[in-house]
Amino acid sequence: LVHLKSLTIDQMDGSAIDYIVRRIEAPNCIQFQLAYDGERTEDYDPSLLLDSALALFEPLLQDLVHRMPNPYLSIDSDSLFWGQHASPSFESDLTPFFHLGIEEVPFLAVIRWVDRVVDPARSDRGPGQWPLVGSLHVPSTTPLADPEIASHLKHLKSVTQISAEVSTVDIRQLFEILGEAGPEPWFPYLRHLNVHAYRWEARELLEMIRARLSRPSQLVPQLTVIIRRQIFPNFPEAGNRVIFDPDILHEIRAMKGVSVLYPDGEDAN
Length: 269
Known about the structure:
single chain, alpha/beta, ten-stranded mixed sheet, elongated
């Protein structure tokens, strides 16, 4: 369909979407929107949508992402959003735009697709364009230690922000992963890390940052750690809150390129 310029697929059955996108080639399409919720679909494996069904549109998305001013990526334990936050005004001269919103899809399928499709598209953006921003939200159901998931996650350049702000996330495990020794660090373009102040020690944060900064040639040289200290009802054990030794905090803040922020205030209980 060489004359097709805009295509929207919104909340259709998974099998119907699969049938359509496997049979359409639209090399000149410059506006593409797809919304899919696997929870509403029966008798269809939602992994297929990312693993193979969208193959004809992947080069199109990789091209469009370089023609949009502020694309973003958001990854959760069972969802993927990639593209632009708001659709442009539809004028006679169509503005390049896409938005991909896929929910209730296995995390492994999401990560495989980001590794194969999104990561290669993060480079080569033109002058004056915002860098690609990618957020990974880590709930307790995200199996970071799974070997197959780890093999795709660890080298992702698309992830620039990680949020792990619920009490059920094992922050110690996350720190170990981020500071892991080896030829290639996890999430080399990580700039922002959001964590809760619960069930870890300040020295573990210090050791993780030291480990990452020991390989400056492989990493983005800035890291902002945002620590949520407010205690919510699902934080039942006050004795497990992080106690910040002033000397350790001073040592962390003295590191070049490292910032520590407390949105709830440094003295929040």
